[in-house]
Amino acid sequence: MTTISENRMTDLFQPTDAHVSLRESVANFAAKELDEQAKEYDETEGFNLSLFKRLGSELGLFGITIPESDGGHGLDATASVIIHEEMSKYDPGFTLSYLAHEVLFVNNFYYSANKEQHQRYLDKVVSGEWIGGMGMTEPGAGTDVLGMTTHTERKGDRYIINGTKQYITNGSVGQVFVLYTKLDKNAKKMTSFVIESTYKGFSVGKKEEKMGMRSSPTTQLVFEDMEVPLENLLGTENSAITHMMRNLEIERVTLAAQSLGIAARCIDIMCDHAMRHREAFGKKLSEFGQIQRLIADSYAEYSAARALVYQVAQSISPETRNSLGAASAKLVATQMAERVSRSAVQVLGGYGYCREYPVERLHRDSILLSIGGGTNEAMQKNIISDLKKVWA
Questions:
Q1: Residues with catalytic annotation?
Q2: Domains detected in the chain
Q3: Per-run averaged pLDDT (10 residues), the chain, 392 residues
Q4: What are the Acyl-CoA dehydrogenase/oxidase N-terminal domain coordinates in residue numbering (predicted)?
């Protein structure tokens, strides 16, 4: 069956042959492997560890944005968007764990670390031997990252870290994390480290029971006099904001890409249901104006959001910034996915409300994307801040 996301504009959505090949391989994998296990892991709130490791060991989907000279694939943000879009059509939760590993750790770590740190950790995370994540959000400081209270003190040949991180994707399954802390609780500067789950003083707190993204583990991370070697400092002390902000841009476009995948799958399901299978009063459901409006608006909004996300993806890299575009793409795409997935539930009626069909799960999953990686309210604030710089 032809799906609505089948591409004809290869210059925007897959600008090179490498992008075309990547989409084909990821799409085939997602349809065959992710779809059949998604319902089970959503219901049990489990994590498909063996399948996740295959992303690295068999499919080579880790290290996408890392230069080939250092064991990666040397691709760009567009490639990362393609992967997140295709995988999210079938299991957004599993894809969220991929994002936490590949974007929040691997990409973030690579462009913040030195060569010696690369040698110690890159092979393990690119192969999938180790799973990574990032520790930023705290119980009392979510969007307000400068309000974090996790505190670091240097003692001899160690840093001692105390604090708690909240809502950490891959927290219970990860072996290595990029961690953001403060050397001075009142300062507006942050310091980052690469830490391992085996460090003395590291522990995993409670696992969250969530509305959606249930196949992706979310936990607290607790640090009680956690000892971190000096050589695990990323960059220099009080310099973490720069690489944090750089990484936020690719995080936001990949979260937006997850929204695209959710919407694309929901539109396919709506069309299949209303145009091929469901009849009412002797006519296909798609013959009724109310249903036509839900499907047509969904497709138009999805198409517009998709063009924006891919355009922004082509404008960001480790050397180029587009804060305004990244915030705009996330704001538009995440709101769109919530509307489209809700419309899918409505078009399918009782079928859409039941867990036998995936649209109710996709709708639940879509809601997190308006919260994670900076809330949509924060995106609006960021957009205004960037526009003020233009119009000042």
A1: 251
A2: 10-131 (1.10.540.10), 133-239 (2.40.110.10), 241-391 (1.20.140.10)
A3: 56 91 96 94 96 94 96 96 98 98 97 96 97 94 82 94 96 97 86 97 96 97 97 94 90 98 97 80 77 95 98 93 96 98 95 92 98 94 94 82
A4: 16-129
Which single residue is written with the structure tokens 């040949």? 157
